[in-house]
Amino acid sequence: MQVLVQKYGGSSVADTQKIKAVARRIISAKNSGYHVVAVVSAQGDTTDELVAKAREISSSPSKREMDMLLSTGEQISIALLAMAIAEEGYPVISLTGPQGGICTDALHTRAKILRVDPVRVRKELSDGRIVIVAGFQGINDMGDITTLGRGGSDTTAVALAAALDAKACEIYTDVDGVYTADPRLVSSARKLDEISHGEMLELASLGAAILQPRAVELAAAWGVTIHVRSSFSDSLGTMVIGGDLMEKQRVVSGVTRDLNVVKVMLVDVPDRPGVAHSIFSTLAQKGINVDMIVQTTKQGPVTDLLFSIGQDDYPATKRLIEELAKDLGITQVLFSERLAKVSIVGAGMMSNPGVAATMFGILAEHGINIEVISTSEIKVSCLIEASKVDEAVKAIHDGFRLGEEITA
Amino acid sequence: MQVLVQKYGGSSVADTQKIKAVARRIISAKNSGYHVVAVVSAQGDTTDELVAKAREISSSPSKREMDMLLSTGEQISIALLAMAIAEEGYPVISLTGPQGGICTDALHTRAKILRVDPVRVRKELSDGRIVIVAGFQGINDMGDITTLGRGGSDTTAVALAAALDAKACEIYTDVDGVYTADPRLVSSARKLDEISHGEMLELASLGAAILQPRAVELAAAWGVTIHVRSSFSDSLGTMVIGGDLMEKQRVVSGVTRDLNVVKVMLVDVPDRPGVAHSIFSTLAQKGINVDMIVQTTKQGPVTDLLFSIGQDDYPATKRLIEELAKDLGITQVLFSERLAKVSIVGAGMMSNPGVAATMFGILAEHGINIEVISTSEIKVSCLIEASKVDEAVKAIHDGFRLGEEITA
Fold it and tell me: Is A65 helix (H, G, I), strand (E, B) or coil?
């Protein structure tokens, strides 16, 4: 019998009625002939409530203790969901992340999965049980509980799907699939039936908050097919699949925006070897993710260095950079929160020159100034004024005719 | 350095301020030169809230899943308490019951501790950390989370104290020690400085809801000294110590009442071998604790059989007994909830004949009728009308002059 892994987010199990609906959905998959493993997040606001409790006690609680605290959220969900399935008369067992064999490194609150040891999961499946596994959490070599950071349940689900050689990993969300643009912004946005791991990875990283980028990365590495679908309907969603073949004809698959951007600009950076390294290694050591990096040449022995970070990392970055600036003799540091990122993603870009130029042209037509450009093989991103980002998304979506079905 | 185990109940960690107060108390013990291990229960009403969540989903949830659910309560407490201690600048680590090495049998919701394997606790102590352990929970041989049942945190604390060869196990409660009677009932009740394990065991079993009987039993078996004291003051409480020597001069140590009593009476039970066995073994198999048992001889081939149980077990007992009665040809079964138990406890009773008679005399003087009597070497219990039990406690306390200090 084939294994099917399903993942339900916090909003899908927010209350008793929703838990019962998820239970029925899991049972229906079981009745279709699958061994079902369901990965579940903490109920609705549980995590926020626990964080608030911790904040009352300490402004900077130990990360290990935060993991000890937050991991209770999923543990509550799995127990309740298992009870709901048992109530329908189906054999079921809940397993914590550690019991599910999710072995991680020791980087508390941001742990990475090192390996999955699904002995217990396999045993329970072969005994005919539905298995409910707590998402977001694992165990390190010390025997301590770790958590995987934001969106970690997606990663748990994909890791289990890979370890169990599952047919697919179904990720249930509050949207019914991956769209060419955010349907709330662009009314002509179209749901994609298929998208490649690579494209999804770019979309995920670029702010389409549907799948956790790490989960997509893992799915790509292990060849796991992800099915993104709605927890509120039975219609098929979007299949995120291996290879980049099937939709090569589509040059641009989607357009996306990211409002979570802070631009950092270092003016007159001494132009000598090792300066950039000392800046970015310091940020990396503190776990700060730097996104776009642009260096512009000036006349004389100085350059301007510009990069972007997420808003969460703004306070820490400000502190670090202002210290570094003194040490390195940088005269001016500018921060800007009034920017946003608009990006296009598409595996077809690689073989279609001029896509970036078309995008710049569309923005220019709408009088939108581009502050920073960054490109990869399958995406083009521009930092533009935040107030114009929604207009930019619509214009690009129309300009590339993403709303139209491709009949090639 | 000697180990000191402390246990804090759910009301002691009910909110942020109380958690901080407990943190300071633990730090003060650490500063007195002890290796401190603190065992903590779930916050205030957490357990009740989790039970309510489960009940919304299922009227009879799986016991394994209940343990999965309920064990999150203590896990939240230990994380928050560890944060509060760290906030004061002391090295500290929280451990779940499984991490603390509390190994139990597989009887979910009522598991018994089989052994304590405190490798991790010892390591953390020797690294200079205060160790916070989740009470009430353990792990079985399957790797599943178990809970120890009502008052299980006391048992966890005593078991750890025994395994770590601790100087003492301090149990913090909302009363400041063990009294000769409930001070809310008897104004002249006196706090005892010392009491033996045996006496405490009888008091605990008889409804003085200060210590969990199983914890006292364990303390007696392992020679652990328990210090029952208040979490709201620094004054010494009552030491529960090994041996029965030190207070032999006190014939009666305390008087206690228990309202949690249901009397079951089987009328005209066939007087043939094996009948009592089949009744009580059936109840035992269902985990129903039978307290007092009295059989009265009648004329002819029948007897009356009478026993008492706790109110929690009433519905299950009623169902079982009514079935059994049919099978065994018992004509009439009577249940009564209008009774209560009043008991005296004292190690000195063994060598002082007539103590029981004095008690019966006091009750008679007050016109209180005795329905059932049960005695052990160090206690005498009587089932009497529930409405008269408070009067009985006062009368007995006065009659034996328990409020007066013994100067012998």
Answer: helix
Q: List CB contacts (< 8 A) between A134 and chain B.
A: none
Q: Does A132 lie at the interface with B, CB-CB under 8 angstroms?
A: no
Say if B206 is an interface residue toward chain A (CB within 8 Å). no
ipTM rounded to 2 decimals: 0.77
CB contact under 8 A, B68 and A86: no
Helix (H) or strand (E) holding B126: helix B119-126
The closest alpha carbon to A173, from A41, A342, A15, A35, belongs to: A41
| H helix intervals, B137-291 | 152-163, 197-205, 213-222, 275-285
Is there a contact between A58 and B84 (Cβ–Cβ < 8 Å)? Answer: yes
Run of H or E residues at A219: helix A213-222
pLDDT in tens, chain B (408 residues): 899 999 999 989 999 999 999 999 999 999 999 999 999 999 988 999 999 999 999 999 999 999 999 999 999 999 999 999 999 999 999 999 999 999 999 999 999 999 999 999 999 999 999 999 999 999 999 999 999 987 799 999 999 999 999 999 999 988 888 988 888 889 999 999 988 888 888 887 666 678 888 899 899 989 999 999 988 888 999 999 986 545 445 778 889 998 989 999 888 888 777 777 788 888 888 878 888 887 776 667 778 888 889 888 899 999 999 998 888 888 899 999 999 999 998 877 766 777 888 888 899 899 998 888 887 778 888 899 999 999 999 999 999 988 887 654
Q: Return the half-sphere exposure (C-beta side, CA atoms, 13 A cut-off) of residue B377.
A: 8
Residues forming beta bridges with residue B172, ordered by sequence position: B8, B229
Of B53, B57, B84, the CB nearest to A87: B57
In a mutagenesis test of the A interface, which of B15, B43, B57, B90 is the best target, namely the one with the most A β-carbons within 10 Å? B57
| B50 vs A76: CA distance, rounded Å | 8
Interface check B130 vs A, CB under 8 A: no
Could you say which architecture CATH assigns to the domain A3-173? Answer: 3-Layer(aba) Sandwich (3.40)
Domain ranges of chain B: 3-173, 262-336
CATH class of the domain comprising A262-336: alpha beta
Are the beta carbons of B363 and B255 closer than 8 angstroms? Answer: no
Angle at A246 between CA A244 and CA A248, to 5 degrees: 65
Q: Which residues pair with A290 in a beta bridge?
A: A309
Rg of chain B over Cα atoms, rounded to whole angstroms, equals: 23
